[in-house]
Amino acid sequence: MPEPETAPGTLRPGGRTARVRAAVLRAAEDALIECGFDGIDLAEVARRAEVGKTTVYRRWGSPRVLVADLLDDMAEQSVARAETGSLDGDLRANARLVVRTLTDERQGALFKAVIAAATGDERTAEALHRFYATRIAEWAPCVTEAVERGEVPEGTDAAEVVRAVSAPLYYRFLASGDPLDEAVADRAAHAACCAARAGAYVEPRSSLAE
Fold first, then answer.
1. Domains along the sequence of the chain with CATH
2. What is the pLDDT of residues 35-73, one digit of tens each?
3. Most exposed of 58, 152, 170, 184 (fewest Cβ within 10 Å)?
4. In Å, what is the CA distance from 30 to each residue of 40, 48, 111, 173, 185?
């Protein structure tokens, strides 16, 4: 069956259609957590969501389109950034949010399943990249505001600072298996903050001039 021409996430219907979408995405989450990407079957997702198979096939058309829409929805539903008045406080809030998400029984399992799926499917990978680009864009202003306050140097790459906060947390989550808790989150945030203040994330002058 051909995939829908409209990219997932471009339509935001209301009413019954929104309820159907929410039920299907919740069922897709359950299927991902229980069976992984390869175990997703649209007919089974429809059964779990208690909606017609025709509706699911017509709107999503394939598991990868469904997972891409799920990631878009996750980005939309993510918690807004904190505004504590200091870079250290904002980055600490960001790091603690990442840790809470990754250590949540359901959300942690879902992220592992989605990341695993993205390693073998280009469309899922693109959706995952959009998800993280959205989250980075949400939190980047905490760094640009810190530049305006004089906390960090002019030319600091805000996105790189935000990435530096979450990178060691995802390393523990996916690679090393070391504990994830608030102390680890605070340390990651403090390290990124200190590096930013020292100018480690200032863009090269050649890049700034382009």
1. 15-74 (1.10.10.60), 80-209 (1.10.357.10)
2. 888 889 999 999 999 999 999 999 999 998 999 899 989
3. 58
4. 10, 9, 12, 20, 28
